[in-house]
Amino acid sequence: EDFEARGGWYLVTLCSVALALNAPLLPGVVSLGMFHIWLVFKGLTTYDYLTGKTSKKRMERSKQSNDIQRNDIIRPTQDHLADDTDELGSIVGRKSDPGSA
To answer: Which of 34, 45, 64, 97 is the most buried (most CB within 10 A)?
Structure first.
């Protein structure tokens, strides 16, 4: 009696109807969420995926990143050059010395 007096059946009925109406939408919501998680892992935005174009902000970031990488490849520091020369000299020295075998 207390359950009915508090409107319990009304609440159960309302929640049941809401669940019945929304349940068919659940697979779509889950797949949309998974699609956006996949986009994040691929490093894409929804705009990038739908249009096939790259947004201006993303293109600028990519260009800056490429410039930084290219500068590291083209102009290595003197420390890197010295390390490479030392390694090469020690390798060549070991291989060319017949008495060390």
So the answer is: 45
Torsion, Cα of 63, 67, 70, 74 (10° steps)? 150
For the segment 18-71, what is each residue's pLDDT rounded down to a tens digit? 999 999 999 999 999 999 999 999 988 888 899 887 767 777 777 777 776 666
2-6 LR contacts (CB < 8 Å, sep 24+): none
